[in-house]
Amino acid sequence: MIGWYVHDHGSGHRRRLEAVASHLDEPVTGMGSGEPAEGVGWLPLPPDAVRAPALGPAVTDPTAGGALHWAPLGEPGMLGRAETVAAWARASGCRLLVVDVSVEMLLLGRLLGLPTVAVLQPGDRSDPAHVLGYATATALLAPWPGSADRGPRSRRGAGSGSRDRRSRTRWTGAFSRFDGRPQQTDRTGCPAGRCAVLVLGRGGHGVRASDVREAASATAAWHWHVAGDLVDDEPVDHAAVVEHGRVPDVWPLLCTADVVVGPCGGGLVADVAAAGTPFLALPQPRPFDEQAALAQMLDRSGLAVVARRWPAARAWPRLLDRLAADPARTARRWRTWADGAGAARAAAVVSGLARAHPPAPWGDSAAALLPVAGPSR
Prior knowledge:
This is Glycosyl transferase family 28 C-terminal domain-containing protein. The protein is an alpha/beta fold.
């Protein structure tokens, strides 16, 4: 059995598990405190912030003096998570724990005697907690091409860090739940001119209805679709804009768009790469400059145009026309980021490590190893 921890912020972590699961050659159980992943067994974990927000920082000490990211004192959810994972690991004969993403879960896995795989994220991960967590991992899985980690770097870049860390890193290329799915060519949703699709995930953003309305008014030759919720929950109310709300299957919109616009999260970038569509990246504020670093990688690789903030109305026509100028060239470039085999490569890494580590001899026999207290005197 393989365990796979999924962070509950946004949906990209869960989608990665779903993309890899069908390629694994042994059972996998996902776990987390968010929405269950589809197609795998699921172990629900207690939230890790049941009580702590109501307490003062001096009491909870959430970072353990800077050594960790989230380990507040007096938080019952932390104990519940550890108990649940430990009991499951013993009962299932777990061989390997993949962690996407949590330094604390990496450390828990290692302390339980499990080999761990850390799924990497772009950004500056040189803080003590990341250094510690990555140092304990058996392998590091980078869901982007290795070429993106070469060339000029900065602290904001994704760089894999020390030589030891790089030697344990496996670059798979990006992968998406849509890899291998046939392209859809029905453009009935774009009745006139070109089509821009704004995709807004669940991880947080700052796009308002007025922003979309101004962009649509400035681009008379374009038809707009909005997938996801705007931050102010107001209707755009523009004749050239179709608001879909949350879309269970965004693939048709990605395929038929002349340009996709959206935050620079790893999940959306992988989905756009699978569709091969031109992309205007709008990196949103995230811990460790994650989206800014990913946008930097895409810009350096010539895969996207990056706007650090929502563009002014007068800038939109030129931006969209520039992006849509050569769609065939854009699709070819996206293949260098995601060639459709990234999930299979990730599965091969995980399966190979699981085979190399037989399950620990837990179960009833483990109880015999526990010391038995003698009678009190």
